[in-house]
C-alpha cells in the first residue's frame, strides 16, 4: 500500500499530469461555453436541454480514457528509466506487486480525471443550461456505462503493462494497447476472411473494442433520445454476459502472463 500511495502521488504531482489536467478542464469549459453561445439566440435555447449534457459526457469519457491510458503508460516506463523497480525490490516488495500496483495506478489516474471532469462538466451544464430529472437520469446512466466498461478497459490497461514488460519501450506498449482497443477484432476478421473459421469470426464480437462499442451504443441511443428511462445495470450486464466473461478470462490470462514475466525479468 505504501508503494502504491507513493508512486501514485509522484505521478499525480508531475508537471505533465498537472498540465494535462488543466488542459482537460479548459477543453470542457470551452466546449460548454461554445455550445452555450451557439445554442441561444435572443434568450431562446434552440437545442433540447439534454443534448449539451450528453455531448459533454461523451467528450469527458473519451478524453479521460485516452488521458489516463497515456499517463498510466508513461508511469510504467518512467520508473524503469529511474531504476525505480530495483529500489522497490530492495525494499522487500514481491515482483508481482509491481504489476498490480501499476494497474491500480492507471485506474486511479482514470478515476481522478473522471471524477473532476464529470463534476466540472455537470456544474457548467447546470450553470449554462439548467438541470432537470432527465439530466439526472442521463448522468446516472452514464455512470452505469462506466461501471460496465471497467472489465474491457482493464484488459487494455493490462496489455499496456504486458507489452512494456516484453519490449521495454513506450512506443510498443502504447501501440500494442491501442491495437487491442481499436484494431484487434478488425485484424482477426480480416485473417478469418481467408481462413473461414466460424468460431474465430464469432469470438471477435467479444473482444474489448466491440464490447465497449456495445456499451457506448446503449448509452448513445438512450442519451440522444432524451429518454428519462433508467438503464438497468444488472439486465445490461446479463445481456453482455458472454462479452464480460470473455474479457474477464482474457484479463486473467494477461495478468498471469505479466506476473510470470515480471518474476523472471532482469531489472538491472
UniProtKB/TrEMBL annotation:
Keyword entries, A-Z: Membrane, Transmembrane, Transmembrane helix
Span of the signal peptide: none
Domain of life of the source: Bacteria
Transmembrane segments: 18-36, 51-76, 103-126, 146-167, 174-195, 244-262
Protein name: ABC-2 family transporter protein
